[in-house]
Design a protein that fits this description.
Layout: E1 8-9, E2 14-19, E3 32-36, E4 39-45, H1 46-51, E5 60-65, H2 76-86, E6 92-95, E7 100-105, H3 109-125
Antiparallel strand pairs: 1-5, 2-4, 3-4, 5-7, 6-7
């Protein structure tokens, strides 16, 4: 899967947030939600986060790994997170049904994309 991950940078800016009162996000279209004991965790666009009054102090970029990842696949998340961690880039991985997504600080996005492309190329050469 690493060889075929073909990472693509989403041009949008994303924000992670949490709410206990879901009425705060009425009218928004979260990219993702997850129910946790503390509240509803969200990934929202810049506009939706701002409109909801949620913090926007940590803008994130999304890099989609376009390979169709298997839910029982082993190693893709670890390889991506390790490569970015070795470069000092924080990474929040979100696994969806078809693809995995790496969320990195917006300022680090170009460097993170280059690192992930190099990882895929190196795996292809191995």
């Amino acid at each position: 899967m690493i060889r075929g991950m073909a990472p693509v940078l989403d041009p949008s800016t994303w924000h992670f947030g949490t709410v206990t009162d879901v009425s705060v996000i009425a009218g928004t279209s979260p990219l993702a939600t997850f129910v946790e004991e503390e509240g509803l965790s969200l990934i929202l666009s810049e506009a939706d986060a701002t409109a909801s009054g949620l913090p926007t102090d940590m803008p994130m970029a999304r890099i989609t790994l376009t390979v169709h990842s298997a839910l029982d696949g082993v190693g893709l998340t670890a390889a991506v997170a390790t490569a970015l961690a070795d470069a000092g880039i924080p990474c929040n991985m979100v696994a969806a049904f078809h693809h995995d997504h790496a969320f990195v600080p917006l300022a680090d996005a170009p460097r993170a994309l280059a690192i992930l492309k190099a990882l895929a190329d190196a795996e292809g050469a191995a």
